[in-house]
Amino acid sequence: MPHRYFTTEIGSGRAALTGPDAHHLADVMRGRVGDQVILCDANAVEYTGTITSVQPGRVEFSVSEGYPSAAEPSVEITLYAGYPKQGKLEDIIRHSVELGVHRVVPFFSRYCVAAPKKEEAKRERYARIAVEAAKQCGRGILPEVSLPLPDFASVCRELKDYDRAFFFYECGGSPLRTLLKEDKAVRRIALITGSEGGFAPEEADLAAAAGARTVGLGPRILRCETAPLAALAAVMTLTGNLE
Amino acid sequence: MPHRYFTTEIGSGRAALTGPDAHHLADVMRGRVGDQVILCDANAVEYTGTITSVQPGRVEFSVSEGYPSAAEPSVEITLYAGYPKQGKLEDIIRHSVELGVHRVVPFFSRYCVAAPKKEEAKRERYARIAVEAAKQCGRGILPEVSLPLPDFASVCRELKDYDRAFFFYECGGSPLRTLLKEDKAVRRIALITGSEGGFAPEEADLAAAAGARTVGLGPRILRCETAPLAALAAVMTLTGNLE
């Protein structure tokens, strides 16, 4: 299988890789004129690229007609994840990108143990982790990690932008199987999972008032790093995007 | 919510905790005569226990009639997981126990990068991790971690013990949604996921010959620590055990 690279320098039958990707292809993979790779525009379109020149720091290609990336799910999921302690958000990002998430938005809430600290710098690191995971698992887009929202009300204000919002509550709620059976035309979905401390009852009320459906993930207590993966895998399974 | 402990010393209306659990209840939680806790026999039966005596290293209880643990899923899933590198098996165990696994069986296979090393000692560590996870997430049993099987043929020999075996293959297969729709009376299920190197084609053939259904988990390449969680979450979702 030819190697796969993301590039934004693509159009009119030509494309280029620069920077670390050019170095990887030229020096690590020893790519030569005439070799083929897959190029992805990070907008869910892929191309077969044939190397036309290899220069220091730059590899150029002629490219085929674009075709839709097969790896993108039919639903566009934003994961709102309560900000966890330590490095757990990194694990959540890696797993979520593999499971097909579109965007990850951490947030602070009443029972969060973590507090905001150097979030601009951390966001760069999170974005790098998301890009690496997207490359490894063959995504057609580069999922974004947003700056954390300062409180749960800010999460709720964004929910109107989605076809459906599911609030995963440790106190239980409706089964996803039922909720997703109701309406198959859902495309933009928000999933909301809590941090170690879970949600305050008034946050559950806020979410419901903002139109989110309260959902349960079963009788076992899932850790804050397991719940988002279970939620994502469940939605992807039920919408036919994990098969 | 009262604290929850596992104990095997339970029967005839009486029960006892010893060792670290007795210390935890007596010295950390400051349990006193008359206080109530939930006791679980690790066999999916729970009891309300009322403390009748607190001695050094031993707490005794009178117990209510037993009731079935609500946390146990209706399916009994054994996860056969290709032995991964580094500490990844520990993460797989933690996540799987939360998602309701019954038993985890690591195995070595053709493309495994890890090699057997001090597996008896490691198994003790894995068992401790499973027990801790079971306590934290409120399981009614203590999921077992078996000693690793030496090769993939050994995995296949065990598959006859299950109602269904699903072989998750990176080259794709049938959708779980279809396979699980066919037969709702399935109880004992084996899930088989690979290590970093994935499976050799002859291993896929072996699994099929042993009666396993080959299953795909979608177009994205899942890491060996993500695939078991996605597989478990998918089966639990489709069988109504994640709601």
UniProtKB/TrEMBL annotation, chains A, B:
Reactions catalysed according to its record: uridine(1498) in 16S rRNA + S-adenosyl-L-methionine = N(3)-methyluridine(1498) in 16S rRNA + S-adenosyl-L-homocysteine + H(+)
Top-level taxon of origin: Bacteria
Alphabetized InterPro entries for the sequence: Alpha/beta_knot_MTases, PUA-like_sf, RsmE, RsmE_MTase_dom, RsmE_PUA-like, tRNA_m1G_MTases_N
The EC number(s) this enzyme carries: 2.1.1.193
Main location: cytoplasm
Alphabetically ordered keywords of this record: Cytoplasm, Methyltransferase, rRNA processing, S-adenosyl-L-methionine, Transferase
The Ribosomal RNA small subunit methyltransferase E methyltransferase domain, residue ranges: 73-235
Domain (Ribosomal RNA small subunit methyltransferase E PUA-like) ranges: 17-63
Gene3D superfamilies to which the protein is assigned, alphabetical: 3.40.1280.10
Subcellular locations according to the entry: Cytoplasm
Described function: Specifically methylates the N3 position of the uracil ring of uridine 1498 (m3U1498) in 16S rRNA. Acts on the fully assembled 30S ribosomal subunit.
PANTHER family with a match to the protein in the record: 16S RRNA (URACIL(1498)-N(3))-METHYLTRANSFERASE (PTHR30027:SF3), RIBOSOMAL RNA SMALL SUBUNIT METHYLTRANSFERASE E (PTHR30027)
Family listed: Belongs to the RNA methyltransferase RsmE family.
NCBIfam families the UniProt entry points to: RsmE family RNA methyltransferase
Protein name: Ribosomal RNA small subunit methyltransferase E
Organism: Gemmiger gallinarum
